[in-house]
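step 4 of 6: structure.
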Amino acid sequence: MAIRKTAEPEENVEVLRASAPAPQLVSTPDTVPKRPYLNTPKKMLASGMSEAEAIERAKDGDGGCFEALYGMHKRRVYSLCLRMTGNTAEAEDLTQEAFLQLYRKIATFRGESAFSTWLHRLAVNVVLMHLRKKGLPEVSLQETLEPAEEDGPKKDIGSQDQVLAGSIDRVNLERAIESLPPGYRIIFVLHDIEGYEHNEIAEMMGCSIGNSKSQLHKARMKLRDLLKVTRVEKAASKR
Amino acid sequence: MNCAEFQRDLPLIIDTGGTESQEEHLRTCDVCRGLVGDLRYIAEQAKLLIPMLEPSPEVWNGIEEKLRREGLVKPVQARRP
């Protein structure tokens, strides 16, 4: 049996904003889409087949169409796995597991949500299940994932440094996220990168909404510290 | 309102918006204004991180092998001569 190659992966374009707007005490505005790379009106495969058609054929056991779906979504699933685990080998294993589960469950996909949303949630569950097996608690995220005091973000009272706006590049941000303590990293990835709401995260993680909010804030504070250190080191290396 | 009070409520402020006194503190305090700006900047940059990374070809090979072993995909029909 051969599984035909029917699609090439989507091309993604690196985008980073050069500057940030002035801070406001309001909820994050909707001007930046939560998951901008999902705003594709109708997904088409390289073969000219629509994603919906490929899903229906994959439900009938068409391996070629399943491979096409893999080609279309592999980067997003792998990036999620890698950002959540911080480990390439684990991320590849989890990507494989997520797509195997997808194939086993694809007949249950009814199109009530976008396919990418459905697949993504499935992948998140695969990663969380894996992390739980490694010791991530289902309920008390706070107690067991709380980093030691020395790992936590520093208070900023009374100190003033240069602001970060305009100084972050993608590579440094990815590195800083990778070096976050696991509890912070998971919540940050799910909320700030993947766009899940706190109630969704609380449900997935088995923690309270307040806990999710608190972890997210600590994660952002910790990232700020890490990015400032990176900037100082970068400046020192130029001297 | 002082910086300690402002920063204690920061998660809530960023999530739901600030009160009048918190807004006033933000207008007059460079430290807290810088902090709020940084946290918003980080959150905005994170939203723009798109999936750039690609798994190695071994991932698909492993999936294909397991699907074949489990008999989950139909064999490709041989073409008629």
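step 5 of 6: annotate
 - The domain at 36-133 of chain A is CATH 1.10.1740.10 (Rna Polymerase Sigma Factor; Chain: A).
 - Residues 1-22, 26-33, 36-41, 137-150 of chain A have pLDDT under 50 and may be disordered.
step 6 of 6: archive
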